[in-house]
């Protein structure tokens, strides 16, 4: 033994090299998510967010490089000193909401138990987030920490933390109406003493009654919103010479405007000492809204020379003069650099004023760019009202929404050319001079002329109006009382590029004169009105129009017998986006629409089911030669006629058909859409994607589809090669269906980049194909570790697919490699030890057994041509169908080990007699499968095959018969009854239950893969082999 290392060093080195190679091969072949049970966004980031964890996982692989760990939204209740010992280089740790008050079902306080040194070992930690964990004190922290978030806990007394290098501290929501504490938070006077580098401090929603003392001079941003600070003294901010942002809103509230529980200001108004801000020379952002302020002292504002943003909304800063609302403060004269000012909701309770008057103090705001005066409730705006704004050359945005304005001449803003946004939404503006102004409408408003009897397409809103007009000069008149539109209404607004008129009561037929003064208009939103589209000349004056929203104008479309014309679309040469959505369009509309410029068309929420059923509108979209996006969702479609598919624009790249009633889609007709890249069929009624289930249900060759969305259907089957012709398919969404397995060809899986399968009842058996998808292919599966769950077996239902370790499955390649490696290690070690210890005896035994086995090695029968011959009655159609479509498919095409079957009609040689073919089939197959029913009688091929198999038993001493019963029968067969006692495993009954069929195939594969003699009853074998006396 002592010479083992010396004599066998070369063999030992070879063994080590072999083991290393095999282990590396196993790791390369299997690419399961590295940090199970969590996901990994990268090598440096582990995502355990919302994984239902009750403790910090103990990962099996190295976490040396991990710098970010996300453990938020779990149920972790205890963190020990060694919990993070495996993360030596951690920099960001998120433990938010592991025991928040909103999750406490029993109504009791809960909190995470943190041991003293839980975070001290993380010497590189820079950011730590502990929101919503019921903490009552700040835990000991590592000195490297720069960013700490401890919002929504129970920190009622803040003691000085043990670190000095903190840059950011968020400690919001520790005492307020959603996290009550029945008191206020107390902050130690020396709490900030060691924080000499802190820059951002947030103490919102903490029920503080005073500004914290000894605030560090390094502060740049301070949030004190929603506390109970009613007084600010002269020295409260004296040390904050670098402060640029101060948020003091909702401290002395105006409760008649509150949207949440409110405590009224005891003193009636927040008291601001005139020297409260005397040292804040660097302040640029000041929020004083909802503090019940009645005035603004000049000396208070005087030091704020650099202020750029000031919010004074929800106060009592308005004054009344001759029934007019007067806004303005003398302190404004000192705000020469102010860019944004909000005076909204400075109304007088239960009072509305005749008009608005802005004081002359506004004229001093030379740098003002935005002015917000919403919710002050006055009925009119006159030229004198906004006269002080005339000198403000930099003013680009004015917002007067929600003021009950009734009388307003828009032209008072026309000369203010610097304005890029005029907000007048949510008022009561009418056009008093618009009604009966002329006879322009009388020419074409009557629908008594030739009525077209065809429907019209409708697109859906692409963006919200505010997003549509973000980069355009905008006039916002949404949610007013406009009924008619006349040209003079917009006189002087030639520079306006975006006009928002949605949610009015406009009910007229546009005839090409209404917007004649808006020659540069590019975006027009007239949704949620009652627009009549009868006139051919509608919108003809808008030559530069690019976006038109006519959605939710169903009033006239729903009138029985009323016609509508969409010929105006062809006359808009620059129109790119059109929205006719949710109009209930079904009949009496232009049969074909034409446009060479239209790119995006939304026609959702109409009745294409009625239109296409009448076969009058099959060419409705044909002549949109430049169309790239078409939305036909929510059209109650149960089918899409092939004629319609042929006449869709070939330029289409995106087609949306979600939220219909489709159970079938003409996939082969996609050949008429050669440029289609995205197809959305979600929220329909698809059950199967298989040419077997639906004839001609296949994708055309060389399809350019890049993204297919089939989520929220009822799919339970997808043919493995269904998407093979989509040679550029990279994104496939199959979420929330009824799929039990994901079985696609290797070619498709190699092309796919993203496949979404969450919300499917997947089978989590050892041979499940889902494991092959992410183990063998580089595919991203969204929410793989926490949203992809098992549907069966029953004990795993609703749990993650990784709850059962797939690496332990017996049919898995990793298990094979492990066993192989173990056996090689064991055998080589045993050989070395036996040779050293037993020497001559071992070699003697080896040669003796070698001689004994020599004959056996050279008398091994030749390899059979087939694994099994299938004998069945081909006269019974359902038996033939089962053999060719179930048995053959499962044994020859599915599974890791695939068998070669011998079938009469497929493999018998022509020209040879039946008995010769039968004999060769039985003899050249390892086993013979007999497929029987209760209607079978042992005759013909079945009878002869049985006799030949019996002859093999006599000649070769080998049982080769397996019986498959498709029905419960043969109880009167004495042979089967005897065989059940001797070798019951070779008689299989086809189960009626779908869930039991998987086990049937598993048993059949196992039986075919082993010698049938091993399944005989041991007592019978012992009886047969016992010596006779």
From TrEMBL:
Q: How does it assemble?
A: Monomer and homodimer. Exists as a monomer in the absence of unmethylated cytidine-phosphate-guanosine (CpG) ligand. Proteolytic processing of an insertion loop (Z-loop) is required for homodimerization upon binding to the unmethylated CpG ligand leading to its activation. Interacts with MYD88 via their respective TIR domains. Interacts with BTK. Interacts (via transmembrane domain) with UNC93B1. Interacts with CD300LH; the interaction may promote full activation of TLR9-triggered innate responses.
Chain segments carrying region Disordered: 433-459
GO terms for CC? endosome; plasma membrane
User: Which residues span the membrane?
Assistant: 813-834
Q: Which family does it belong to?
A: Belongs to the Toll-like receptor family.
The organism's place on the tree of life at top rank: Eukaryota
InterPro entries membership:
Leu-rich_rpt, Leu-rich_rpt_typical-subtyp, LRR_dom_sf, TIR_dom, Toll_tir_struct_dom_sf
Q: RNA-binding among the record's keywords?
A: no
Q: What is this protein called?
A: Toll-like receptor 9
Write down the membrane topology: Single-pass type I membrane protein
PANTHER family recorded for this chain? Answer: TOLL-LIKE RECEPTOR 7-RELATED (PTHR47410), TOLL-LIKE RECEPTOR 9 (PTHR47410:SF3)
């Amino acid at each position: 033994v002592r010479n083992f290392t010396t004599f066998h060093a070369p063999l030992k080195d070879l063994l080590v090299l072999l083991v290393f190679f095999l282990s590396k091969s196993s790791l390369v072949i299997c690419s399961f998510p590295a940090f199970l049970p969590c996901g990994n966004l990268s090598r440096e980031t582990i995502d355990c967010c919302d994984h239902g964890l009750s403790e910090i996982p103990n990962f099996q692989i190295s976490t040396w490089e991990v710098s970010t760990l996300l453990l938020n939204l779990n149920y972790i209740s205890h963190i020990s000193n060694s919990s993070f010992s495996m993360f030596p280089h951690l920099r960001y740790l998120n433990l938010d909401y592991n025991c928040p008050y909103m999750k406490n079902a029993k109504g009791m306080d809960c909190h995470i138990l943190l041991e003293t040194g839980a975070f001290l070992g993380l010497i590189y930690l820079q950011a730590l987030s502990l929101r919503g964990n019921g903490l009552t004190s700040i835990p000991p922290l590592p000195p490297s920490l720069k960013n700490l978030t401890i919002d929504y806990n129970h920190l009622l007394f803040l003691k000085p933390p043990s670190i000095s290098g903190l840059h950011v501290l968020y400690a919001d929501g520790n005492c307020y109406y959603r996290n009550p504490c029945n008191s206020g938070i107390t902050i130690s006077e020396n709490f900030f003493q060691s924080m000499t580098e802190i820059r951002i401090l947030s103490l919102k929603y903490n029920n503080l009654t005073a500004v914290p003392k000894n605030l560090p001079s390094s502060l740049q941003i301070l949030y004190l919103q929603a506390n109970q600070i009613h007084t600010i003294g002269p020295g409260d901010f004296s040390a904050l010479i670098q402060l640029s942002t101060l948020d003091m809103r909702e401290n002395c509230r105006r409760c008649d405007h509150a949207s949440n529980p409110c405590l009224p200001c005891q003193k009636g108004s927040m008291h601001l000492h005139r020297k409260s801000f005397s040292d804040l020379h660097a302040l640029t952002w000041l929020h004083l809204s909802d503090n019940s302020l009645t005035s603004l002292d000049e000396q208070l504002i005087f030091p704020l020379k650099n202020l750029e943003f000031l919010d004074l909304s929800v106060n009592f800063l308005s004054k009344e003069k001759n029934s007019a609302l007067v806004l303005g403060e003398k302190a404004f004269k000192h705000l020469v650099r102010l860019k944004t000012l909000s005076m909204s909701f400075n109304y007088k309770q239960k009072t509305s004023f005749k008009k608005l008057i802005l004081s002359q103090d506004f004229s001093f705001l030379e740098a003002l760019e935005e002015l917000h005066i919403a919710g002050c409730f006055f009925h009119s705006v006159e030229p004198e009202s906004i006269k002080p704004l005339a000198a403000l050359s930099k003013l680009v945005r004015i917002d007067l929404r929600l003021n009950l304005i009734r009388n307003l001449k828009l032209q008072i803003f026309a000369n203010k050319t610097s304005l890029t946004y005029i907000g007048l939404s949510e008022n009561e503006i009418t056009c008093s001079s618009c009604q009966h102004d002329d006879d322009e409408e009388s020419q074409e408003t009557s629908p008594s002329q030739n009525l077209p009897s065809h429907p019209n397409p409708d697109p859906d809103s692409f963006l919200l109006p505010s997003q549509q007009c973000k980069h355009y000069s905008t006039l916002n008149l949404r949610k007013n009382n406009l009924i008619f539109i006349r040209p003079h209404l917009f006189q002087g607004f030639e520079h306006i590029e975006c006009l928002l008129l949605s949610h009015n009561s406009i009910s007229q037929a546009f005839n090409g004169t209404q917007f004649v003064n808006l020659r540069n208009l590019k975006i027009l939103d007239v949704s949620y009105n009652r627009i009549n589209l009868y006139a051919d000349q509608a919108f003809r004056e808008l030559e530069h129009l690019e976006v038109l929203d006519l959605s939710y104008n169903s009033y006239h479309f729903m009138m029985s017998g009323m016609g509508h014309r969409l010929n105006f679309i062809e006359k808009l040469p620059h129109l790119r986006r059109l929205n006719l959505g949710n109009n209930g369009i079904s009949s009496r509309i232009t049969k074909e629409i034409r446009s060479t410029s239209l790119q995006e068309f939304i026609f959702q929420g109409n009745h294409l089911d009625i239109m296409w059923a009448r076969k009058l509108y099959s060419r409705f979209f044909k002549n949109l030669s430049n169309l790239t996006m078409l939305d036909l969702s929510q059209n109650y479609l149960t089918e899409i006629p092939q004629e319609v598919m042929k006449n869709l624009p070939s330029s289409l790249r995106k087609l949306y058909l979600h939220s219909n009633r489709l159970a079938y889609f003409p996939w082969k007709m996609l050949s008429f859409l050669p440029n289609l890249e995205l197809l959305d069929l979600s929220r329909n009624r698809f059950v199967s994607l298989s040419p077997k289930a639906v004839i001609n249900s296949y994708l055309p060759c060389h399809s350019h589809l890049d993204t297919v969305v089939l989520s929220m259907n009822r799919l339970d089957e997808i043919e493995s090669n269904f998407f093979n012709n989509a040679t550029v398919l990279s994104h496939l969404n199959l979420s929330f269906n009824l799929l039990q397995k994901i079985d696609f060809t290797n070619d498709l899986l190699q092309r796919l980049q993203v496949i979404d399968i969450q919300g499917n009842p997947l089978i989590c058996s050892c041979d499940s194909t889902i494991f092959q998808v992410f183990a063998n292919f580089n595919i991203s599966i969204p929410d793989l570790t926490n949203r992809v769950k098992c549907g069966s077996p029953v004990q795993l239902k609703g749990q993650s697919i990784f709850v059962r370790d797939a690496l332990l499955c017996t049919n898995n390649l990793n298990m094979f490699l492990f066993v192989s490696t173990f056996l090689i290690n064991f055998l080589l070690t045993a050989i070395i030890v036996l040779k050293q210890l037993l020497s001559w005896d071992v070699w003697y035994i080896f040669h003796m057994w070698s001689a004994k086995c020599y004959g056996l090695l050279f008398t091994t029968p030749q390899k059979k041509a087939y694994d099994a011959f299938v004998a069945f009655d081909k006269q019974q159609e359902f038996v033939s169908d089962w053999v060719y479509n179930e048995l053959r498919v499962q044994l020859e095409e599915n599974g890791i080990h695939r068998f070669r079957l011998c079938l009469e009609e497929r493999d018998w040689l022509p020209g040879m007699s039946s008995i010769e073919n039968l004999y060769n089939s039985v003899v050249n197959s390892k086993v013979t499968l007999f497929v029987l029913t209760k209607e079978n009688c042992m005759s013909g091929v079945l009878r002869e095959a049985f006799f030949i198999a019996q002859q093999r038993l006599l000649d070769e001493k080998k049982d080769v018969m397996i019986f498959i019963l498709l029905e419960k029968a043969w109880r009167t067969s004495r042979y089967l009854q005897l065989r059940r006692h001797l070798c019951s495993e070779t008689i299989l009954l086809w189960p009626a239950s779908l869930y039991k069929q998987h086990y049937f195939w598993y048993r059949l594969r196992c039986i075919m893969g082993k010698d049938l003699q091993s399944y005989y009853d041991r007592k019978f074998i012992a009886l047969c082999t016992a010596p006779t006396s």
